[in-house]
Structures are given as C-alpha cells and as structure tokens.
Amino acid sequence: MTERxxxxxxxxxxxxxxxxxxxxxASADPSDRPSPQAGGLKAASSAEGIRGxxxxxxxxxxxxxxxxxxxxxxxxxxxxLTGRIVLMLAGIAVMGLGIDIVVKADLGNSPISAAPxxxxxxxxxxxxxxxxxxxxxxxxxxxxALLRREFRLVDLWQIPIxxxxxxxxxxxxxxxxxxxxxxxxxxxxxxxxxxxxxxLGIVMTVVSGTxxxxxxxxxxxxxxxxxxxxxxxxxxxxxxxxxxACLCAFLFVGHLAGVREGTFVCAAFTGVIxxxxxxxxxxxxxxxxxxxxxxxxxxxxxxxxxxxxxxxx
Length: 313
Known about the structure:
Radius of gyration: 40 Å
Order of helices and strands: HHHHHHHHHHH
Strand content: under 5%
Mean pLDDT: 77
Distance between the termini: 122 Å
Largest sheet: none
Number of strands: 0
C-alpha cells in the first residue's frame, strides 16, 4: 500500500514536470532542441535572401520599361533643346549674311543698323560697332518697358548674341570681299536677294523659340501685347528705324547720309517676305502634325514650347 502511494506520487511529479516544460516551450528531449548553429545559418540565409531580393528588385526597377521611357524622354528633350539653339545661332548667322548683301547693294543700309551707321558718320570718334552695341542695349530696355514682369531674365542673352551677330557680319563681309553689283539694276537684284536671306534668318530665330536678336525680340514683344502678325509689326518697326536714321542724319550730319531708297524698300518689304516664309512654315507644320497624328504620335512645336507668339503665320 505504501509503495503504490510512493509510485503514484512520483508519476504525478514526473507528469507535472513534463507539462511544465511543454508550456514553457522547452523540449523534453534535449536532442529535439534546434542547435544555435543551425538557427544562425537559417537566419543568415534568410538575410541573404532579403538582400538578394532587394538587389533584384532594384535592378528590375532600373531596367523597367518606365525607367527606360523616362531616360528616353530626357534624351529627346536634351536633343530638342540643342536643335533649337543650333537653329537660333544659324538664323543669326543667316541674318548677318543678309545684311551684308543689302550693304553690298549700295542702296542704303538695313533699317535695324541704319541709325547706328548714321551716328558713326556724325561722331567719327566712336565706331559703328560701338553705336550698334549701344543700340541693341537700348532695344533690350524697350522690351523691358513693354513686357515688364513678363520679361524673362534669359532674354538678357540678347546682348552676347548681338556680339555674335556682329562677328558674323564682319566674317561674311570679308568672305564677300570685292564682290559688288556693277549696275543700278544689279544693285536692286542684290537688294532683293539680301532681303530674302535676311527674312529667312529672322524666321529661323523666331521658329527656334529661344533667344532672338534684339530687333526681332522687340517686334515679338509688340506682337505678344497686341496679337498682330509678326511680319506686319516688323514692317512698322523697320519703317520707324528708317525714319529715326533720317532724323539722326539731319540732326548730327547736316544732310541725308547713310540712308537711301533701298533702306525704305528693305523696311517695307522684309516683313512681307517674313509673312510669306511663316505661312510656308505653318503649312509644313500642319502637314507634319497630320502625318504624326495618323501614326499616333505627337509633334513638338518650337513656337509653342519655346514661348513663341501664336499669330505669326
């Protein structure tokens, strides 16, 4: 009787210990417990798996179609901006060539440079280039007065562009050398060709939608304020420049010097030729848009993206 009670009590104590170990999470058999090394390997392998997953996800994100599309758009935007700048510089150079051809016609200077030329005749101690630079700076001030808060600081680049403009004029004048018309009729042909080249350069700078030459920038400022056609405002501006040159000639030279019939013809018809060129550009642009729309693409318009005026055709 006594032995049964003792055995019964030991069994109860043994079961109680085993139940306590199960509740505490400990295994009754030490061999069933996981080794620290095995747990460390599992943790390390899981950490490596997480890092590997992160690296794979990063690589997949970098090579994803969205990332590639963003890079492609950035490259296209950079190329488009570069093309616009090249078009603007080419337009400035073409304008310089047109002015030189007009000067070679010997029927009067171009309207934009007529007043500085007359002032250089009245004040021989100051060069024509110096008066031209001062005239360009004055035109920048006119733009600021017209546009006020709408004037962009980037448009101050017109001043160094004017220096480039002067360099192009000197370079093309040297290339033309002694070439000149031999008759009065030939002079008018040279004048017509010079106006056509000058108008083409003006259109190139306007279409580029970047920084233009000071004279054309003043015209564009008036267009933005009035909504008139660019070529029409250009005619009025050139006529005003020619009239100012006549006034300076009578005031500072004493007679009509540096201004001839070709100056007024150039002032009256250069803007008309610009309107013709802009009309042709508008037709080409619309045709390109139609073809692109048929393919489901979009065409970038320099006049829109570059802040150009909308009524230049």
